[in-house]
Automatic annotation (TrEMBL):
The gene is lysA. Belongs to the Orn/Lys/Arg decarboxylase class-II family. LysA subfamily. The active site is at residue 348. GO terms for biological process: lysine biosynthetic process via diaminopimelate. The lineage of its organism: Bacteria, Bacillati, Bacillota, Erysipelotrichia, Erysipelotrichales. The modification N6-(pyridoxal phosphate)lysine is found at residue 53. Pathway: Amino-acid biosynthesis; L-lysine biosynthesis via DAP pathway; L-lysine from DL-2,6-diaminopimelate: step 1/1. The keyword ATP-binding does not apply. Residues 27-285 form the Orn/DAP/Arg decarboxylase 2 N-terminal domain. Homodimer. This is Diaminopimelate decarboxylase. Keywords: Amino-acid biosynthesis, Decarboxylase, Lyase, Lysine biosynthesis, Pyridoxal phosphate.
């Protein structure tokens, strides 16, 4: 029987039912510790922002705070969650391409330390709102460096036609954004943010991003007299989903980023003081697994199906952008994998297929199927499609489990309905 952090999958399923999302807490802690350790520099002040969108709940934010991480939020809901665990607001960065007035006011009220504005219109609106702030707010602008990180088209975010940020080609608009905050005593424009994609396996993509960013920082100084001190390089750090994935080792990717940035600083004589990154997926993805109970099986002329008690409602990624996963039958891990299956969910969509063409032992009702590396964008993208309640989430450490998100009841699911 397969175990997670010292607990058998069967014990977890029997105790908490399925579908169940399980995190190995030691893996979470190790990843946070490693990022904080390896992303250190003698040249720059460094910061590691946990990207809430990958997986946000009170307990994961408590862990991030424990390790001294900063926090990336993109909505009022993510900010509210941070507030509920007293996350230090000076270490919170508020992103988003279409922040509402209510969210911007909320950020000011909560005392958020840094706002990443996405465009000129937002900059103008937020600048007016910030005049009522009782604290100084640091401002970054998201720009698009035009880097193609060779990821799926839905998760490439740094190209010039992205919905996010302002293209480097729109230099006049970027200068206008910066000058918008010049005369506001409650704001300080610090620098630029960029994000070139997700699940990046080529460290040269990060190096290319850094060179363009530092080059643009220098251009702002030479052409417009604007001296900038912060560069946020975003995320994109990859995780291992299947044997086909080969993420860059964390020490290597951190060294690449820091060494390239230092070389650019020396070469261009820029004045960047702070360097930031935003790992989310790579912290939580591999630490998380989802346990399902197999139901019926079905054989068609070309496929063998095994149906599970979850699906696209708790993991939309395979249907959304053909994300690949690996899995095992937890209670048959000692048996040969002789049958090629399609693991399908129970949602009423033909595209509700979690994994296609995977070799498993012969499956039958009651088997426990564990899908690996579901810790990122599983729960955070989960839905109530077909009125399926959200699964429970447990953290397991040294053979002991604790519930961090309770399983949703039917009553809770319809509590807001009239």
């Amino acid at each position: 029987m397969i175990e997670i952090a010292g607990m058998s999958v069967k014990e977890l399923a029997d105790t908490y039912q399925t579908p169940l999302m399980v995190y190995d807490e030691n893996k979470l802690r190790q990843k946070m510790s490693d990022f904080m350790h390896y992303f250190q520099s003698d040249t720059f002040e460094t910061g590691v922002l946990y990207a809430s969108k990958a997986f946000s709940c009170k307990e994961i934010l408590r862990l991030a705070n424990e390790y001294g991480m900063c926090l990336d939020v993109v909505s009022g809901g993510e900010l509210y969650t941070a507030g509920q665990v007293n996350f230090p607001m000076e270490r919170v960065y508020f992103h988003g391409n279409n922040k509402s007035l209510a969210e911007m006011k909320m950020a000011i009220e909560y005392g958020v330390g840094t706002i990443i504005v996405d465009n000129l219109q937002e900059a103008q609106v937020f600048n007016e709102l910030a005049k009522n702030s009782d604290h100084v707010i640091h401002i970054l602008l998201r720009i698009n460096p035009g880097i193609d990180a060779h990821t799926h088209k839905y998760i490439v975010t740094g190209h010039v036609d992205s919905k996010f940020g302002v293209s480097m080609l729109q230099e006049e608009e970027i200068v206008r954004v910066i000058k918008t905050f010049d005369e506001n005593e409650h704001t300080v424009f610090e620098g630029f943010h960029a994000h070139i994609g997700s699940q990046i396996f080529d460290k040269n993509a990060f190096a290319a991003e850094i060179k363009k960013m530092f080059g643009f920082v220098k251009k702002m100084e030479e052409d417009h007299g604007i001296v900038l001190n912060t560069v946020n390089l975003g995320g994109g750090f990859a995780a291992t989903y299947t044997d086909a994935d080969a993420p860059i080792p964390l020490p290597e990717v951190c060294a690449t980023i820091l060494d390239t940035a230092k070389a650019q600083q020396d070469e261009r004589q820029t004045h960047v003081k702070k360097l930031l990154i935003e790992p989310g997926r790579s912290i939580v993805a591999e630490a998380g697994s989802t346990i399902y109970t197999a139901g019926f099986t079905k054989q068609t002329p070309n496929k063998n199906y095994v149906f599970v008690d979850g699906g696209m409602a708790d993991n939309i990624r395979p249907a959304l952008y053909q994300a690949a996963y690996d899995a095992d039958v937890a209670n048959k891990d000692d048996q040969p994998k002789t049958v090629t299956y399609t693991i399908a969910g129970k949602c009423c969509e033909s595209g509700d297929l979690l994994i296609e063409g995977i070799k498993l032992p012969p499956c039958q009702a009651g088997d426990l199927i564990i899908v690996y590396t579901t810790g990122a964008y599983g729960y955070s993208m989960a839905s109530h499609y077909n009125k399926l309640p959200l699964p429970a989430v447990v953290f397991v450490k040294d053979g002991k489990a604790r519930v961090v998100i309770e399983r949703e009841s039917y009553e809770h699911m319809i509590a807001l309905e009239k």
